[in-house]
Give the backbone structure.
Amino acid sequence: MAELKSSDQDLGKEIVNLNIDTENLDLESARTAARNKAREMNADAMMLSWHNESTGAYWPTYECGAGGERPWVLYAESRGSNLTVRINDGEYEFYFLLF
């Protein structure tokens, strides 16, 4: 169900890919699955930001940075994000800080 991998782009960070076989996966179900996985890895995991590829929605909902950087990624990275949980090939992405 989960695959851990790193790339040069995400050096020093863990990426977990989850596939959830369900029609009409909603944000709350995806968030719960991501949070459960992160807390499996570290009980104190804190969600920093998320993005829904299908709708373009993201949180926190304010722009930060310049030059067209993805605000949810910039926000998470500037706060020390060290875990990304990607659900269904990036349909949803959640960024966490593992303490």
The longest helix spans residues 27-41. The CA atoms of residues 84 and 95 lie 5 Å apart. The chain has a mean pLDDT of 89. Strands lie at 2-5, 14-18, 46-52, 58-59, 83-87, 92-97.
